[in-house]
Write the structure tokens for this entry.
Amino acid sequence: MINNKDEILKAYNFRHACKEFNGNEIPKEDFEFILETGRLSPSSFGFEPWQFIVVQNKELREKIKEYSWGGEKQIPTSSHFVIILGRKKKHMLYDSKYINDFMREVQELPDEVRDMKRGFYKAFQEKDFNLLEGERAIFDWACKQTYIALGNMMTSAAEIGIDSCPIEGFNMEKLDELLEREGIMSRDDFGVSVMVAFGYRKKDPRGKTRQNLNDIVTYIE
Amino acid sequence: MINNKDEILKAYNFRHACKEFNGNEIPKEDFEFILETGRLSPSSFGFEPWQFIVVQNKELREKIKEYSWGGEKQIPTSSHFVIILGRKKKHMLYDSKYINDFMREVQELPDEVRDMKRGFYKAFQEKDFNLLEGERAIFDWACKQTYIALGNMMTSAAEIGIDSCPIEGFNMEKLDELLEREGIMSRDDFGVSVMVAFGYRKKDPRGKTRQNLNDIVTYIE
């Protein structure tokens, strides 16, 4: 265990939305470590509704950049550029093949536990979170889970001195179309949730701004 | 900087969805450290669309439990129980008072930078992410940001040996109503995004299951 709050907080202060990288390459074992913290991230019901596309191909990066005003400098200069996909309704629905296979093969749940879990999951989707009203709510819900992995990967990168930039500044529909055209995903199955660039900063950032703890935390004693 | 990948990964393996806590109390400075990692988490455009309600009151915890099938054991036994709220459309809209005040007072942006940022933000909401079609898409988008803070808080807790459990197993509408009835929030302003319990495990978890890295990562070289 790390058990050093000051050192951990240093990483939180080191991390910023790095707008331009210096072109140095992240060592393979460091990048795999970052992905590993994404892989080990929790998700609702443990269903890991994510895929990570690591785009190292320069031509493809250029094409992605065309639809990504928020990644103008980060996309070409980053050492590793990751598109995080979320799973669509087809897979996330309580009685889908993905969910059934996942409970059996990944979670290795016995039949009766699978049935019970599917029942909870159905009620959750139908009533508790009201996710079945269209295609979007359930996809957004899958994407929420990917933000846990996103946050963890940026923090773990910072903890070993690697910079990052999360990127939502892209046209969702155009990017989905591009990735389908390129044969990287099918829009029936996946959609782009968010993107994140990793590398080493070109220059130091301006100071961090945040609301005070008092403004965002309320204790009910 | 921590710079010790093995120690960091230990924390990822230590963390699990802890279903029951042993009743020991988290020291104040440790819990404040956890909140601080939430506070320092990134969010889209830096707008921090979150509030953290720390529910220590036993009666209120019982009332919350009534609508939270996923928190049956965690809610009463946790040392600290946190409800994470997301901001509603009223606040997140590009020309809202919240956004304008936030850019001026928290981010301390000069007039012309605020105007430029508002323009990007408007285009992002209207076109890129198509967030303005109703109340839900923009609220879900605010909630996605809270999952970054959620993930960071659970990981930072694990890094100092503290257990946690994220909880989505609740009825969103009923819980929103309860918190409004109790005077904790107005449903015009906020909605419950997700909850998270912190404490120390009562017993050891069963092993972690995850898809293999190969099944979730694709390199495009």
